[in-house]
Amino acid sequence: ETLGAGAMIGRVIDARDEPNPDVVLLSHDVWRLHYHSDREIVGRVLEFRTGALLAPIPPRFLTVIGVMPATFQFPAESLDFFIPFVHDRSRPPGPGVAMVARLAEGATTQAATEEAMVMGAAIRAPWPDGALQPSGPRFEIESIKEQTIAPLRPALRMLLAAVGVVLLIVC
User: Fold this and answer.
1) Is the pLDDT score of 11 beyond 90?
2) Beta-carbon neighbour count of residue 64 at 10 Å?
3) What is the pLDDT of residues 118-155, one digit of tens each?
4) What is the mean pLDDT of the chain?
5) Residue 95: helix, strand or coil by DSSP?
6) How far apart are CA 133 and CA 139, in angstroms?
7) Model-level pTM?
8) Has residue 56 got a pLDDT over 70?
9) pLDDT exceeding 90 applies to what percent of the chain?
């Protein structure tokens, strides 16, 4: 819903999932390769195992709510599934979390960054006594367009310079 794409089967993650975040939205590739394009997948409960081998996290059981179409491409990278973000104060904070959100009409990335910093400070779990604490949560908010184009910028500049040189030679 945030990215303006609908599910091919079932539905996408939305506000209904906040009170019950144990849902999963599958990518088309995972649905096709691992679940053999089963059109009855919606409503099935799947077991997800995560965590390192030395410190395993108990499995999560997630209910499939939908499958994204083959044409859907996540802007930053290819992902296998999508789950709602839920802040769990009982677990220590990780090194980072990437999220996607849509800015309100007329909002700026600077204003969103400032608001995210306030919210992050409010939800941060207390650190154990004696633990080295970071100076505070750090958020970097950037547009998907900027994130997609940034890695290409040096190559585009080089191409522009090469075209300029060719034009100078020809003229």
Assistant:
1) yes
2) 22
3) 877 766 656 666 555 555 556 777 777 777 777 788 88
4) 79
5) coil
6) 16
7) 0.60
8) no
9) 29
- Strand ranges in the chain using DSSP code E only, listed in sequence order: 9-10, 23-26, 45-48, 60-67, 81-82
d(CA 85, CA 148): 23
- Residue 26 CA to residue 154 CA, distance in Å, equals 35
CA distances to 32, 131, 147 from 69, rounded to whole Å, are 11, 45, 23
Q: Which residue has the tokens 């910028």?
A: 153
Q: Which two tokens stand for residue 139?
A: 């958020």
* Dihedrals phi, psi of 82, to nearest 5 degrees: -130, 135
Separation of alpha carbons 29 and 158, rounded Å: 36
> Which residue is it, tokens 């750090």?
138
User: What contacts 109, CB < 8 A, 6 or more positions away?
Assistant: 103, 141, 142, 143
